[in-house]
Fold each of these.
Amino acid sequence: MKISSNYRLRTIAGETIVVNQGVGEKNLTRIISLNASARMMWEELADKAFTLDDAAHLLEETYGIDAAQARKDASAWVEALKKCGIIGE
């Protein structure tokens, strides 16, 4: 899977948000905000193809959490971005 190159991170008023820089968005009321760990994962994985295992391993290494928790958290991150159309296969 891969994060679409149409999306970029921006920091506004101390918050990290995802901005669609590709196709013009008609509904501008939708804001996607990322916490610190979601931002770190985005920054590490944005320019390459990755798997769920890659994302989970990144969480394990960065935060020292166990494999099961890392996979659960990585899966939630991936699914949330897929739901928004940001991650594709």
Note: The chain has one domain: 2-84.
Amino acid sequence: MYCNKFLNRALALALVATLVTACGGGGGGDSTPVSVTPEAPSAPVVQPVPAAANVSQLTVDAGPSGTGYNVNRLYTTVKVCSPDSTQCKTIEHVLVDTGSFGVRLLASAMDPTLNLKQSTGANGSPLLNCAKFVDDSFAWGPVVKADVVMGGMTAASVPIQVIADPAFNGLAAACSVGGTAITNATVLGANGILGIGLFKEDCGERCNQIVNNGSYYTCTDANCTATTGAKTSIAQQVKNPVPLFASDSNGVLIDLPGVSAAGAPSLNGSLIFGIGTQPNNRWTPGAVLTTDSVGYVTTLLAGQNLPSSFTNSFFDSGSNGLFFDSTITKCGTSADGFYCPTSPVNLSATLVGANRATSAISFSVDKATDLFAGGVNHVLPTLAGGIGDIPGHPSTFDWGLPFFYGRRVFFGIEGQASMLGTGPFYAF
């Protein structure tokens, strides 16, 4: 599955689309973010320190209004602008996903007056992108060029995907294969996806060389009534915007505070760009795990009569739980896909990089239906579930957002040099 690069990179998104909808209960509605960081005691008023340019604020909260009960969703704000123009649109509640690559924004969250220039295939017709996920959901829409702004950082003229553009929805059958379309914020639980993981493009050389690659299409006639597969150069592919920054472009750091096992209504943190480029992204002693060519490390899980070795392991802020197959009791239909042990299960694991570096991890799995009770807490550090039977990848461990709580997790981007080496690697 990882052989075409994008499908496995999109694994995290598939789990989000499948599993969060299984949370059940609760409602959407507006929610005021509440930081779990203790407030400082009263003190004389001081002038605030300006936010660093290489920082974009993060939050885990209820998500876009009216989209149901969202849990362990990591959001940021992204501004997109028409290149060489002052026309911009600021989009809140964009899902931060280190398991995929590229900016994908819902058409319903965009401003049509931006008039972003469409990318075209070799025949001059619009270039269309298909992102398929393992739960049979998919994102379909045209590729356009936009300046992408996060914090004080700008990536110029980035190919991004506009999801569910009504002008092209009638052509989605080329992508669906009977799957479920991501068409709005209720389906996605966000207004878009910010894919900022280990790799620079969503498909890579495969789509540069193969016509029927399953990711890129173009129209077969002037009226765009049908599509055909299209080779797509690296330059045209939907891209991770971080390597396109003028500075602080060699990786990202997700910095989230810890939270108690009981969870919390919301949480605030930071998405910091660059590794070792600024005082706020310096490395402190820890583990640096290089990956194989497709972004995997190995998880060795101890005890509980569980499968012990997960060679296809990755760290994914876009997944709302820790996902791995085990003998832990599963929930019923009220929380399908999640684990529901009768009491918390404490586990330990050793993570092993391609460089043979190791790191010991301890974590707990609690009863999902209890965690979801009342629909109040959106930050759930003990949420976990089964990953299912993924063809060709029976040994997958998805370290989703609960792994990130209380850690500073670095992602070294492929081919980018840093004080920790050249990516791809994970460090924490």
Note: The domain at 280-427 is CATH 2.40.70 (Cathepsin D, subunit A; domain 1).
Amino acid sequence: MVLCAMTNLTCKHTLRGHRGTVFALSLSTDGKTLVTASKDAKLRVWEVASGKLLRTIEGSKSPLLSVALSPDGKIAVTGNTTNSVQFWDVEAGKEGAKYTGGTGHHGTVNGIAYAHDGSFALSVADDRKVMKWDPVKAKQRTVMNKHEAPVLCVAISPDNKRCVSAGSDGTARIWNLDSGEQLQVIKAGPESVMAVAWSADGKAIATAGNEEEIRLWNPDTGAAVKAIATGVQAVNAIAFSPDSKWIAAGGTDSNLFLWEIENPPPPPAQSDPAKGDQRVQFKGHANSIHSIAWSKDGKAVVTGSKDETARVWV
């Protein structure tokens, strides 16, 4: 993986077909398969290398706000605006196992994450809960409930032992996934935290939202590490590079941005005008970006937008 090449990304494929915002997307571990989830209540499955649409999966009764794909690419888990966590057989193109009615969320399901070893999935929702699921049996295992407002996003540690959830209460909360115990409460800001990511080396958590900053935190202590000024009014999505040295982000200004974490450029307002905009940015989307994924080999970034497309950048 040569990340200096990432500063020269081009849009290889523009994936069209959804009839609504692409709120969420997820890549398989091998980087060959992409699933996108949209306001149109449909899942679409794509071949990343060719940009070919493999299948469209229908069955959600409301817009899909979140999706996570199993590491082997066989199961997709989604959350929608009518409180449902659904499990899909990606290869068959249909809904798989169902969980028992009445045991799920009571509010819009805003975020989904899949364990790196495929052993469980997490969901977060407006009902302030973080839920752990057995994705094969589609059964709920653990409920974590300490947030004071809707939970908007969730990420899992590389060793699958902890997760971080964040949301409208301005906090990011770290949990022990075996016991359900809350380990840390990070005061991430007065505004909603709309995006969260855990670095692949396990050493950093990133949060972002309406404050024009990406903030980095120590996951063991909850201490603030660094703030990166973005110049973007609202950051909706973030992702670490596989080597944990870069972070990708997208938001309301429709551009994909990359920052080198150890040496980010100065805030746009303080940049040298003679040098232009020193942020590494890529233009192409016609509306705000809502979802980002970085391939495990570091060679591609995928974005989803309100312009009803997803883009593959290489």
Note: The two ends are 12 Å apart (CA to CA).
Amino acid sequence: MQDKISTSDIQEQKQEKVADDFQRKKLSTFEKYLPLWIGVCMVLGIVLSLIVPGISEAIDSWQIAGISVPIGICLFLMMYPAMLNIQASELRKLGRNPKPIILTLISNWMVSPVVGFVLARTFLPGNEELIVAVILLSSSPCTAMVLVWGYLAEGNQEQNVVNTTLNTITILILFAPLVALFTGISNIPIDRLLLIISVMVFIGIPLVLGVITRRSLVNWKGKDWFETKYRPAVGNLALLALLTTLIVLFSLNGMVMLENPDLLVLVSVPLLLGFGIVVFYNLVITRLAKLAYREATITAIIGSSSHFEIAIATAISMYGVGSIAALGTTMGLFWEVPIMLGLVYLSKYLRKKDFWKGEPM
């Protein structure tokens, strides 16, 4: 006699089918030319800083408790759609296939922070704010844009959501202590209270509102309406918010970037080396772990990315808009976007070459 299929199994199969359908959906024209729009927004932000004198001071003057309100709004619009994916129930799936999750956590919270710290100390001696910028970037695993990168790479979206959920929780706990540890080792004084406030404002608030919204709307309108109507509609804000954030951030730091080309080159050295080392590590470790493509590409993408939004916001909160620290974190954003897009295309190329030999989960 055949075993009866439980209701939870049926629901799980439906969710996986939805994820697969999501994977096969063709990119829209807007999504297809995302690298172009990103470049345009970066240039537009720099141009704004040149043709509108004092724009950075005007934006920076709008603060509450040292937190930039415009940056907060931009980050909320970018983070909130991602937080709608956060579900405590997703974490129960960790036991089903923990290997990719464990590899990602090791990369995010051990490999990347240590690599960033060592490179910053090696290439930026005497440049305290740039060292802090690299520490902020390397100690903050991405929780938002990886959903876009993973989608573009046609990776395992269920794993992407689980990892994003876990990263969002762990960043609330580990980001501030890691930054405090590495800056303490480097004898660099920072405002640790402001560091904690930045984490709560830029991660904690969107997380709480996302969880409340999800529960309230699912109870009110049903899960099907939430998944097929509300979340996709709000999800469209994520890319638009990213582009808006790019314009605002580069308008804030455009003049600083143009006036300090030597510092741009200086901070780019550890940033690019760090990306290269961590990406190479993740590609090799996922192959050695015998992961299949869909799991391997998500592991490599999340394990190699940084939460540039919280890094930039924290740098601006602690040092100000026109600071060298803000410049350093903005350069992290400048390099990360094309590198992550490049990793997406590299992953697809390696899939054609059968780089990953594992069996699909």
Note: Residues 223-259 form the longest helix (37 residues).
